[in-house]
């Protein structure tokens, strides 16, 4: 019997219960893995609190990201062997010592990448990849704005965008986080607690605005994010850590410069196996080249997931965090 964090009802951090949880044997097309590390992401909070409904109801084991070794293979699985080092972004269930996962979501981890590093970077790194390379293909000469620049996605995106030749602007909530962002590719960092980020962006761009805003904050940055864009710029709203935007007036896009808006999701962008493989390969290549450094800033025991969630929601974390079984 393996242990896992189980949620029987949605709510605060108190609903995260560490207990024995059956794993079972892998069925056709499935693999049983032992986790070495599990990634902590804000989407985990959404499922815990009920902002996102559990796709298969309650109880649920949260977590979409992990890395470990293959223990057993189900019928029909090819290209993997027992003992392989693997990582994934996949269906809920990562907050566990062991789990069964579809083979289709697994990618092999290169020998020069630690499994804890893989667990820390798959969701955040492939999110950065699809945002920067596919949602809006950042190129040399572009100017971008990335909210939550000192977060897990933000630190990866800042480095990656800089390597693509962009001018990178980020927002943060403290001077400590500003220093961290500056060390990860950001040319300009705005502390939104002491500065008007819209006015500062306009000043930095000579009144033009940025080509794209990547926004995982939501309520607190809307509609300011739209005011930071150049005419026909793109607002990519990929999260809502400060709360949902309660109403969205489509006519604002016309009023503020014939803007584009999108609500992308990694699970759509990487739904096809070919896209997943390309995304993971691009991430591993960016890390191998040195263009992107992955730094684990916090580690918690998986049993202490409630503490990790409290720190994440309290904005007491920076960069990547892993939970260790």
UniProtKB/TrEMBL annotation:
Keywords: NADP, Oxidoreductase. The keyword NADP applies. GO terms for molecular function: mRNA 3'-UTR AU-rich region binding; NADPH binding; quinone reductase (NADPH) activity; zinc ion binding. CDD domains: QOR2. One of its GO terms (cellular component) is cytosol. InterPro entries: ADH-like_C, ADH-like_N, ER, GroES-like_sf, NAD(P)-bd_dom_sf, QOR-like, Quin_OxRdtase/zeta-crystal_CS. Coiled coil: none annotated. Pfam families: ADH_N (PF08240), ADH_zinc_N (PF00107). It comes from the Bacteria. SMART domains: PKS_ER. Gene3D superfamilies: Medium-chain alcohol dehydrogenases, catalytic domain, NAD(P)-binding Rossmann-like Domain. Residues 11-323 form the Enoyl reductase (ER) domain. The keyword Zinc does not apply. This is NADPH:quinone reductase-like Zn-dependent oxidoreductase.
């Amino acid at each position: 019997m393996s242990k896992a964090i189980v949620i029987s009802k949605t709510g605060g951090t108190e609903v995260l219960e560490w207990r024995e949880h059956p794993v079972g044997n892998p069925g056709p097309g499935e693999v049983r893995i032992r986790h070495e590390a599990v990634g902590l992401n804000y989407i985990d909070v959404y499922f815990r609190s009920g902002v996102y409904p559990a796709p298969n109801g309650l109880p649920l084991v949260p977590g979409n990201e992990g890395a470990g070794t293959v223990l057993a293979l189900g019928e029909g699985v090819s290209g993997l062997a027992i003992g392989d080092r693997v990582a994934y972004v996949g269906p809920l269930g990562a907050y566990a010592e062991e789990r069964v996962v579809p083979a289709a979501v697994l990618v092999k981890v290169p020998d020069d990448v630690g499994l804890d590093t893989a667990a820390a970077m798959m969701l955040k790194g492939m999110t950065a990849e699809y945002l920067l390379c596919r949602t809006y293909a950042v190129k040399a000469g572009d100017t971008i704005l990335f909210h939550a620049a000192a977060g897990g996605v933000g630190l990866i995106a800042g480095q990656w965008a800089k390597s693509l030749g962009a001018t990178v602007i980020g927002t943060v909530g403290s001077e400590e986080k500003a220093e961290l962002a500056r060390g990860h590719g950001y040319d300009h960092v705005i502390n939104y607690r002491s500065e008007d980020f819209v006015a500062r962006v306009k000043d930095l761009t000579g009144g033009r605005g940025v080509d794209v805003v990547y926004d995982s904050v939501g309520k607190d940055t809307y509609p300011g994010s739209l005011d930071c864009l150049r005419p026909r710029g793109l607002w990519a709203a990929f999260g809502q850590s400060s709360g949902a935007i309660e109403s969205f007036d489509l006519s604002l896009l016309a009023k503020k410069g014939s803007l584009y808006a999108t609500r992308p999701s990694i699970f759509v962008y990487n739904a096809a196996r070919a896209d997943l493989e390309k995304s993971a390969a691009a991430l591993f290549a960016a890390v191998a080249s040195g263009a992107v450094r992955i730094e684990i800033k916090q580690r918690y025991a998986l049993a202490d997931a409630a503490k990790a969630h409290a720190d994440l929601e309290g904005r007491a974390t920076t960069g990547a965090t892993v939970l260790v079984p």
